[in-house]
Description:
The protein is an alpha+beta fold.
Amino acid sequence: MISLKNFFRIGFSAFAIVCLLNVTSCTSGSKDTMPVENDNSSATTSSSETIVPNPQADSATTAKTETTESDNEKASVHVVTIENMKFNPATITVNKGDQVTFINKDIVGHNATEVNKVWASPMLQTSQSWTFTPEKTSDYYCTVHLVMKGKIIVK
Length: 155
């Protein structure tokens, strides 16, 4: 017969193994085990979409905006930081033609996917970013962590 002490030791060990497997499944795995992502093959993509490996962003600010000029038009770049399993800021308001940059400052990979799959970022690992130009107001979420949600309001 197993003693109560050994029962709890075995139970705790099994619990710890299950927790470790859950954590590692968030950051690793083949495409067969990862959630399906939008490859954007049917959506029109902007030529301004990029992945930057080492972004410089200040996560202490709630929203960062930069203004650039191209062809006598002023466009702003709005930064959404992904940190602590949240999009920060969760809701942003941009003007038509502005760009939005998602920067992952979390310890696990994330993405940003529009709820109707109109646009989707690639999986962003720590320190990676993705920039695009939203065309209309949309809600989005992380397909790996469904509790992570945000909204882009386009004026």
